[in-house]
Amino acid sequence: MAATAVRAAAAAVTAAAGSPASLSRFRGALVAAVVGDCVGGEFEGAEEVPMETVLRHLNGLENDTKGDATLEYSDDTAMARCVVQSLLTRGGFDEQDMAHRFAKEYSASPGRGYGAGVIQVLKKLASPHLSDVYQPAREQYNGRGSFGNGGAMRAAPFALGFPEQANVKKFARLGAMLTHSCSLGYNGALLQALAVHLSLQGALELPQQFISKLITEMENVEEDDAARSDARFLKEADKPFCERLYRVKDLMGRSTVSIEEVISELGNGIAALHSVPTAIFCVLHCLEPRECFPESYGGLERTIAFCLALGGDTDTIACMAGAIAGAHYGIQAIPQSWIKCCEGAEDADVSAGQLHMLYQQLSQSDSSDIRTGEKSYGLWTENKSNGAEKKNGTQ
Ligand SMILES: [Mg+2]
């Protein structure tokens, strides 16, 4: 596309999505994450998914005989809903409350596709005698913790709950550590939340700057001793997420990129390292029209379709890419017929409005209001700052 056409397309997206952190962007992020999870479930674990099959699946959602939430959400959405409700109820991050919600949600609805590892953690989190809610995750895998994408798949709400970038990073990391204590797990969540945060601000209008900003941020994050030690132990690059983001940048510079190249360069698996940079790439790659998609498709539809065609962990990759793309394009970009088919999409729309209100309240309040006690890092209203009340509320 010519530079002027790219600028015109970017201006059209801005007009539709609204100003930075607009309600439309919030709704787009949360609803598209649910849609990605629900429509992606069809191809989870598939090795090869021809684009024609993906497009047939998506076209089928337009069929009037579907609708009424026929596509069920999986653990991605189930846990993200817990994050949202915890942030809204507590007015910020409360690890006890969030852990309790994860455990309760799992016991109420265990058939959502949780991995065997996280099930062990969720069962321990259900114990009323547990004092340190991070302990069960730390005990996993002989004390090395999980590096799966389970923290990243539910990270988007942190970007919607906190206006300050430093808080998005801090709480996305802590929220992930409730189940994923390996740095390659929680740093994936931090990266995902950061990508949604930047997208919400309109940063995807300048794709090169967007990826450069992510690299700069992750350079600092991965300086950490734990990150270096985990990377060495797992025989990964010195700064594994940075290394993958450089690959994303390299792929962005190529005129054509095949599905096979994306899988071999970035991965499509259940490790955060093999899925979060992939989701980010899918969004970037689909900013412009591509030959493989119907002309009628907008950027959000292209992004979801591309994620599904990768096979592998399609529901989680589409969920994460959906959140980033939804924050860029806004709610109007998601086809109504898709929303109608997906369980939980309308609830997500309501929650997005509530998170938008919380975000605006926090934007207006002084950041010094943030209380950072030994165990809690929430943003508290007067009547919720009492430790005893908080404890009683989460038992
Ligand atoms: Mg899932």
UniProtKB/TrEMBL annotation:
**InterPro entries xrefs:** ADP-ribosylglycohydrolase, Ribosyl_crysJ1, Ribosyl_crysJ1_sf
Keywords from the UniProt entry: Chromosome, Cytoplasm, DNA damage, DNA repair, Hydrolase, Magnesium, Metal-binding, Mitochondrion, Nucleus
GO terms under cellular component = chromosome; mitochondrial matrix; nucleus
Instruction: List the subcellular locations.
Output: Chromosome; Cytoplasm; Mitochondrion matrix; Nucleus
**Pfam families the UniProt entry points to:** ADP_ribosyl_GH
> Which residues are noted in the entry as Mg(2+)-binding?
74-76, 313, 315-316
List GO molecular-function terms, semicolon-separated.
metal ion binding; poly(ADP-ribose) glycohydrolase activity
Give the GO terms filed under biological process for this record.
DNA repair; peptidyl-serine ADP-deribosylation
- Please state the Enzyme Commission number of this protein: 3.2.1.143
What enzyme category does the UniProt record give?
hydrolase
Instruction: Name the major location.
Output: nucleus
Signal sequence, renumbered to the chain: none
Q: Which PANTHER family match?
A: ADP-RIBOSYLGLYCOHYDROLASE, ADP-RIBOSYLHYDROLASE ARH3
Q: Which family does it belong to?
A: Belongs to the ADP-ribosylglycohydrolase family.
Outline the subunit composition. Monomer.
Protein name (record): ADP-ribosylhydrolase ARH3
Per the UniProt entry, what species is this protein from, by scientific name?
Answer: Cynoglossus semilaevis (Tongue sole)
